[in-house]
């Protein structure tokens, strides 16, 4: 329980961090636009009427309004990744709930107005997190996961089973957000009335704390404060020649919200975290002009309990110290105006006309650094010493490492997977455009030269009419479509067996099954349904790997099918990592020796191995078939090793149904002639 809770907590922090890191390019562009526009406003106000300025200003405003939507999408993706959910589902429910919150049944809303409200709603940042955890909870309720069929792909089944959890989650999230928005609205209204009647110092403290708390939830503090409380007291005089907004620019927001000059210095002094240092370096040019969104979202400070506390404490301390000194009259102001983007120290000199304010700013920065340092050290040590995050990231992201080499390897693997998918798609199209056929390769007795059985082999007749081998089977198996191939083989074999029976031809036939299909109940049922009437004439060939992977399940499946008369043979024995000890554990009727060990009889060790393998298998009571006999020399050798049933191109390739029957009839006639000739020779004087 503790481990699961710890995993969820770490997944939350990593998802938050990666969500806003993914938005850094967007945030940097926004910050750059804000800086350019602010510089123009201060030093070239005449440009404000130009078309370029108006275009850039509107573009920047629209881009800024898009941030909540971008955050919603990024949070949906990353929380879905770490909570193993569908990102599309999380984003859909989040956007749906956001739309529901803005619908007013008493007033018609224009489409563009609705989108404007949606894009600017700060709740868009909270919604995907709430949706992700609630959806995960509802998906864990088995009663509303109505699809349990193994015939559907896991991907399709996952998304069909999302229907009821998704609807339930949407209703729950929308109701929770409605209720919380209403309660918070009532609370803020009461708080607003009390705040309006309070003193200036109380308003100042509340404003500083409120804006920074809002920042901690990913909301632009100053804008949200004025939207929520409807109070813009920035022009109130806090001292002679000093407004409240000027006070916060000079003494509270040193580098932006959270007094991030102090945070930056603390990071450069104490942090060993590479990500933290990189974000600090990237944000440095902007923080000099009091623009710190890159730092807030890049570290991130949002939802980060390790940095939220000093982020609020430092501005409050700055407010208390600054207000105490200003109200005591120890600092005087010249009344000179300065823009909010003017770097600190310089703005202090302009506002005071002396070095008194810059010295106080340096003191406040030093105090802020002292407050931030222990938190930064703790954050850095946690990031450096805690391998839990890395293990979690590797597990969730399919062992993606965070260093560059692993990232390249991951990209390579992704590229290979993409190529595999493209190849699979091409293969499927080739199969669909062609015609699947079932051919039969004879197994011949070395004693009588008659056909004793056939192996059913899959073939594809392509669009050009050429019949080719089943090159597509590995791709289908890898993609999980092996059961489809087996279903075709079983149904076609049943059809051919019925036609042969109608022609008074009753051959013995073996068919190959995918190892996964052997233990599949649906495949077993299909075998019984289609081939039970011919079970006494059917050998099921299984790869040795099927027994190694799940011996108990395979044996149980064999017991079930033996009851109907099916027999079982190990196919391709001698390939890969064959296990001789397995032969003493399983109950099979025969063994097919793979051509790969026959190819080695050119060497003495290969001949010894083949003979001893035959001797061992025959002593255990298994019927042997030599597979892949292609030359007279190979036939002579396998005969000497005690094998009397062979299969290979020396006798016949895989043939269509009718040709296979004619081949058997021809072999029987040749055998009869040979036998008759032998008798005549024996009767001659």
Automatic annotation (TrEMBL):
Listed PROSITE patterns: EAL (PS50883), PTS_EIIC_TYPE_3 (PS51105)
Pfam families hit by this protein: EAL, PTS_EIIC
Gene Ontology BP terms: phosphoenolpyruvate-dependent sugar phosphotransferase system
Sequence ranges assigned to domain PTS EIIC type-3 in this UniProt record: 1-375
Molecular function per GO: cyclic-guanylate-specific phosphodiesterase activity; protein-N(PI)-phosphohistidine-sugar phosphotransferase activity
Subcellular location: Cell membrane
SMART domains to which the protein is assigned, alphabetical: EAL
Keyword Transmembrane: yes
Keyword entries, A-Z: Cell membrane, Membrane, Sugar transport, Transmembrane, Transmembrane helix, Transport
Gene Ontology terms: cellular component: plasma membrane
The keyword Membrane is annotated on this UniProt entry: yes
Transmembrane segments: 20-43, 55-75, 82-103, 115-139, 160-184, 204-229, 250-270, 282-300, 307-333, 353-375
Designated name of the protein: Diguanylate phosphodiesterase
Source organism of the structure: Shewanella colwelliana (Alteromonas colwelliana)
């Amino acid at each position: 329980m503790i481990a699961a809770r710890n995993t969820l907590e770490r997944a939350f922090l990593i998802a938050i961090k990666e969500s806003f890191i993914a938005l850094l390019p967007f945030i940097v562009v926004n910050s750059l636009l804000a800086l350019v526009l602010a510089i123009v406003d201060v030093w070239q106000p005449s440009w404000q009427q130009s078309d370029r300025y108006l275009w850039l200003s509107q573009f920047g405003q629209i881009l800024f309004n898009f941030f909540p939507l971008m955050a919603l999408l990024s949070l949906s993706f990353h929380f879905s990744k770490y909570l193993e959910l569908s990102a599309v589902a999380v984003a859909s429910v989040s956007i749906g709930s956001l739309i529901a919150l803005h619908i007013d049944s008493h007033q018609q809303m224009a489409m563009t107005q609705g989108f404007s409200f949606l894009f600017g709603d700060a709740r868009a940042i909270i919604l995907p997190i709430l949706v992700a955890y609630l959806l995960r909870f509802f998906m864990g309720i088995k009663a509303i996961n109505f699809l349990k069929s193994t015939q559907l792909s896991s991907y399709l089944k996952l998304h069909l089973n999302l229907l009821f959890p998704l609807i339930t989650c949407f209703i729950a999230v929308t109701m929770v957000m409605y209720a919380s928005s209403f309660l918070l609205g009532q609370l803020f209204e009461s708080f607003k009335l009390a705040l309006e009647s309070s003193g200036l110092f109380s308003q100042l403290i509340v404003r500083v704390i409120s804006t920074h708390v809002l920042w901690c939830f990913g909301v632009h503090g100053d804008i949200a404060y004025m939207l929520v409380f409807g109070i813009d007291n920035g022009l109130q005089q806090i001292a002679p020649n000093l407004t409240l907004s000027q006070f916060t620019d000079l003494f509270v927001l040193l580098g932006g919200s959270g007094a991030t000059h102090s945070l930056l210095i603390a990071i450069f002094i104490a942090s060993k975290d590479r990500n933290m240092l990189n974000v600090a370096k990237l944000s440095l040019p902007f923080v000099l002009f009091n623009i710190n969104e890159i730092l807030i979202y890049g570290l991130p400070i949002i939802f980060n309990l390790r940095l939220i506390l000093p982020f609020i404490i430092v501005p409050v301390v700055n407010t208390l110290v600054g207000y105490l000194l200003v109200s005591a009259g120890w600092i005087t102001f010249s009344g000179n105006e300065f823009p909010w983007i003017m770097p600190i120290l310089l703005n202090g000199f302009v506002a005071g006309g002396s070095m008194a304010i810059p010295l106080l700013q340096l003191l406040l920065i030093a105090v802020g650094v002292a407050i931030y340092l222990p938190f930064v050290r703790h954050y850095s040590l946690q990031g450096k010493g805690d391998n839990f995050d890395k293990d979690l990231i590797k597990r969730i992201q399919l062992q993606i490492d965070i260093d560059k080499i692993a990232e390249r390897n991951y990209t390579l693997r992704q590229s290979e997977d993409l190529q595999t998918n493209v190849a699979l798609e091409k293969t499927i199209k080739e199969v669909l455009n062609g015609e699947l056929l079932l051919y039969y390769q004879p197994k011949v007795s070395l004693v009588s030269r008659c056909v004793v059985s056939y192996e059913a082999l899959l073939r594809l007749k392509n669009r050009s009419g050429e019949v080719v081998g089943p090159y597509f089977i590995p791709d289908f198996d890898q993609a999980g479509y092996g059961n489809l191939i087996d279903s075709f083989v079983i149904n076609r074999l049943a059809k051919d067996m019925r036609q042969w029976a109608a022609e008074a031809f009753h051959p013995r036939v073996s068919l190959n099954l995918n190892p996964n299909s052997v233990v599949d109940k649906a495949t077993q049922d299909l075998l019984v349904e289609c081939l039970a009437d011919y079970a006494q004439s059917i050998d099921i060939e299984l790869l040795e790997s099927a027994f190694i992977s799940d011996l108990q399940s395979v044996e149980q499946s064999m017991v079930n099918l033996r009851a109907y008369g099916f027999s079982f043979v190990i196919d391709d024995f001698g390939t890969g990592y064959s296990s001789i000890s397995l032969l003493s554990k399983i109950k099979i009727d025969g063994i097919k020796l793979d051509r790969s060990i026959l190819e080695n009889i050119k060497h003495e060790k290969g001949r010894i191995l083949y003979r001893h393998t035959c001797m061992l298998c025959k002593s255990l009571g298994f019927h042997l078939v030599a597979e892949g006999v292609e030359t007279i020399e190979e036939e002579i050798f396998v005969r000497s090793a005690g094998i009397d049933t062979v299969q290979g191109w020396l006798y016949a390739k895989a043939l269509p149904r009718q040709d296979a029957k004619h081949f058997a009839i021809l072999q029987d006639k040749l055998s009869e002639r040979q036998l008759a000739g032998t008798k005549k020779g024996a009767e001659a004087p």
